[in-house]
């Protein structure tokens, strides 16, 4: 089986797990037998564990907080980073102590995701007291012009740093597009909600998918400096998968060379990825406007 076939295979396996989970009950026994939890804590392939963590975060279900906190102790840094990202997406402030325990993690990518999730959760208001005024709905529909689903992120580089960078790439896509005026970022599961579907239909909002690829990761040494160049492609698609726009960008991180220092490579790659994604995403709003009338 080729590399693309293998990627499709493990992604399909995670999708099957997630679909099974959506039909599960919320009682304690169902949670204990939840295949998504099993994938996160027991799957041998770290990529399955990463995708299980993402699915939990996208669910916005606080019941997934305990298994995600356990995954923060996973041996693979990509899984730890994915779990930290997912805890931030859940929005449950009770995860703060578990995240704080990882601020000195050995992986720079994990530390970055932990810091971002801590900042996200610290900004979440405490639960209102009984009888307090209800909070504003999560989606201010009167301001929304486009609905965006952040879909798959894929690796085409084949580099050893790629797993942790894929976790960061998915998080960066969601964060950058959510900052655009008039855009609501929703998970696939949220689109199954009846009220959400009615709002989208009533307002005739276009629904699009945003996906990303890590195209290349190149390391070079020159005059005592190490340089890491990251190339990414961001794709805007219809909800059915038809390509609407393709945006590519690259950026380079550089520092004095410390020799065979993986932490330095992780940090430079992470910095370059942030810059490359920001460059690619600077064209997304224009692409949304172009694609909005062609659903």
What coarse outline follows from CA principal-axis ratios?
A: globular
Whole-number mean pLDDT: 81
Q: Strand content of the residues, in percent? A: 15-25%
Radius of gyration: 19 Å
**SSE arrangement, N to C:** HHHHHHHHEHEHEEEHH
The largest β sheet comes out as:
5 strands, mixed
Low-confidence stretches: 1-32, 131-136
Q: Can you give keywords for this protein?
A:
five-stranded mixed beta sheet; 5 strands; 295 residues; 19% strand; globular; disordered N terminus; 48% helix; single chain; alpha/beta
Briefly characterize the structure.
The protein has helices at 3-22, 28-32, 35-42, 46-59, 65-71, 77-90, 96-100, 108-122, 162-178, 194-203, 262-281, 284-291, and strands spanning 146-155, 183-185, 207-222, 225-238, 243-256.
Walkthrough of the structure:
This protein has twelve helices and five strands. With 295 residues, the protein is α/β, with parallel strands linked by helices. A five-stranded mixed β-sheet has the order 2-1-3-4-5. Strand 1, helix 9 and strand 2 form a beta-alpha-beta unit. Helix 1 runs parallel beside helix 4 (46-59), helix 6 (77-90) packs parallel to helix 8 (108-122) and helix 6 packs parallel to helix 9 (162-178). It is globular and about 60 Å long. The protein starts with a helix and ends with a helix. The model is unreliable at 1-32 and 131-136 (pLDDT under 50).
């Amino acid at each position: 089986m080729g590399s693309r076939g293998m990627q499709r295979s493990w992604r399909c396996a995670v999708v099957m797990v997630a679909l099974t989970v959506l039909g599960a009950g919320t009682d304690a026994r169902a949670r204990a037998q939840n295949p998504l939890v099993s994938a996160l804590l027991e799957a041998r392939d770290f990529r399955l564990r990463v995708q299980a963590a993402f699915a939990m975060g996208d669910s916005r279900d606080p019941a997934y907080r305990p298994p995600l906190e356990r995954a923060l102790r996973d041996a693979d840094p990509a899984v730890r980073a994915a779990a930290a990202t997912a805890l931030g997406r859940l929005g449950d402030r009770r995860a703060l102590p578990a995240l704080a325990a990882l601020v000195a993690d050995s992986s720079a990518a994990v530390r970055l995701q932990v810091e971002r999730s801590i900042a996200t959760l610290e900004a979440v208001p405490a639960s209102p007291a009984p009888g307090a005024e209800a909070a504003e709905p999560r989606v201010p529909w009167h301001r929304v012009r486009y609905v965006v689903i952040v879909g798959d992120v894929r690796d085409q580089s084949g580099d050893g740093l790629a797993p942790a960078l894929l976790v960061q790439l998915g998080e960066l896509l969601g964060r950058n597009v959510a900052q655009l005026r008039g855009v609501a970022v929703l998970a696939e599961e949220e689109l199954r909600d009846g009220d959400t579907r009615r709002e989208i239909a009533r307002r005739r909002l276009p629904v699009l998918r945003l996906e990303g690829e890590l195209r290349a990761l190149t390391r070079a040494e020159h005059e005592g400096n190490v340089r890491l160049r990251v190339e990414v492609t961001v794709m805007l698609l219809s909800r059915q998968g038809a390509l609407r726009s393709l945006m590519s960008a690259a950026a380079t991180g550089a520092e004095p060379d410390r020799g065979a220092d993986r932490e330095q490579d992780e940090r430079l790659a992470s910095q370059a990825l942030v810059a490359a994604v920001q460059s690619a995403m600077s064209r997304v709003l224009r692409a949304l406007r172009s694609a909005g009338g062609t659903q």
